[in-house]
């Protein structure tokens, strides 16, 4: 996995990144979006369209193409090595979000997932 969605996405879920993702690896939780680490191809297409600069990519589904990163209007998508230290917990949260879900092969197949990682769910509502 190389891309991670961080705090700025909480309670925003702009979804521009979902439209940009060529492999459908960005999943929607109750309060945030998540990038599946096994599905992401690391293209970065989602990052530049994010309005709050924060993305979670399914690490198994990402193909490292980078299409998400430049379209993120809030700059919430970070390449793993560029994730700010204050948001380091979001890397682990992104990976663990998919522990029970596995790799369904695309976010469109599952729709909104009625949960968030505890790092997200314990946060107070975010004003943007």
In short:
By secondary structure, this protein is α+β, with helices and mostly antiparallel strands. It has 3 helices and 6 strands. The termini are far apart.
What report would you give on this structure?
The protein is of the alpha+beta class and 128 residues long. It has a single domain (3-102), classed as Alpha-Beta Plaits. The chain contains three helices and six strands; from the N terminus they run βαβββββαα. The protein has helices spanning 16-20, 89-97, 118-121; strands at residues 3-5, 26-28, 33-35, 38-43, 60-65, 77-79. The protein has a two-stranded antiparallel sheet. A hairpin with a 4-residue loop joins strand 2 and strand 3 (33-35). The longest helix is centred in the C-terminal third of the chain and has 9 residues, at 89-97. The chain is globular, with a radius of gyration of 12 Å. The mean pLDDT is 81.
Give the averaged pLDDT, no decimals. 81
What is the CATH topology? Answer: Alpha-Beta Plaits
Beta content comes to: 15-25%
The neighbouring-strand order within the major sheet is: 1-6
Count up the helices. 3
- Briefly note the structural class of the backbone: alpha+beta
Q: Can you name the CATH architecture? A: 2-Layer Sandwich
What descriptors fit this protein?
128 residues, 6 strands, two-stranded antiparallel ribbon, 19% strand
């Amino acid at each position: 996995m190389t891309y991670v969605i961080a705090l700025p996405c909480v309670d925003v879920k702009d979804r521009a990144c979902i439209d940009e993702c060529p492999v459908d690896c960005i999943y929607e939780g109750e309060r945030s979006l998540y990038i599946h680490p096994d599905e992401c191809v690391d293209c970065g297409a989602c990052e530049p369209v994010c309005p709050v600069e924060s993305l979670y990519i399914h690490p198994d589904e990402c193909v490292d193409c980078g299409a998400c990163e430049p379209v993120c209007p809030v700059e919430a998508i970070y390449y793993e090595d560029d994730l700010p230290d204050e948001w380091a917990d979001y890397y682990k949260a992104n990976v663990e979000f998919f522990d029970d879900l596995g790799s369904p092969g695309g976010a469109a197949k599952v729709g909104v997932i009625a949960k968030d990682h505890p790092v997200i769910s314990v946060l107070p509502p975010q004003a943007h």
